[in-house]
Amino acid sequence: MVRKTPNNGITEQRPSFFKVIIPGHTTKHLRIPTPFLELIRNDISDNANLNLNTSSEQSWKVKVSKTRGGVYFKDGWQEFLKDNPADDGDFVVFEYEGNMHFRVQIFDNSCCEKDSFPKNETHKKSTFAERKKRRPGTPRKSRMGCSKLPRPLNSSKDNSDNIAGESAESFKSNYPHFTKAIKQTYCVYSFPTSFYKEHLSAGNYKVVLLKIAEGENWHKVKLVRSLGTAFMSKGWSEFARTYQIKVGNVCVFEVVEENKMVVNVFRT
């Protein structure tokens, strides 16, 4: 991820990585990926500071533990999880800001970024402990307005999905393009790694501009870069709502110039 400093306009590289919250695996401590450590090897110290992307007012100090098995966020990591609504399966992105400071983004199981957090004093218990009290089969309450539509299990739906997929496969373009099947409504979607590296990574863009095929308006969508590719974040859900992109649709994304992409939607 590239940022431009306000004083001299010089760009700087800000590496990032992501982890999925898995009870017993990333809840007790969190292992920092080895390739990422190579990027910050001159900065590694005994402590790290975590700040939420949605607020710069509060930070969490986390002990950095070095072992033969790797480098981990340890003491203080569980407190961070308790103070913030991170649930099983959530997707957490860590963007490095230098001097062992990380900007943290949390995406929920509908793939939407969590941008509304409870105050710490009202969130004393870990969400993992709360989940144990739920009866099996009880749905989790969403903290956001992001929606995920259930997919009906019937043959007519499957057939319509096949039609959308076949239409997308027959799509021809002189521009570089890739195809995405919409599995969840308003979900955060990533670019195929090879496609991103070949057609989009040179500029290390913070945003991508999307336009519906035959449309006139361009829409800004924030990009979160991680592990060799990028994820469409803030702005994608609004784009999907505006053009009624739904589960079962298939989208073909064409790179028409620099960070501009035309979205062709094949509907069921």
TrEMBL record:
Residues 122-164 are annotated as: Disordered. It is found in: Nucleus. One of its GO terms (molecular function) is DNA binding. GO terms for cellular component: nucleus. Residues 131-143 have a biased composition (Basic residues). The keyword Transcription applies. This is TF-B3 domain-containing protein. It comes from Rubus argutus. The lineage of its organism: Eukaryota, Viridiplantae, Streptophyta, Embryophyta, Tracheophyta.
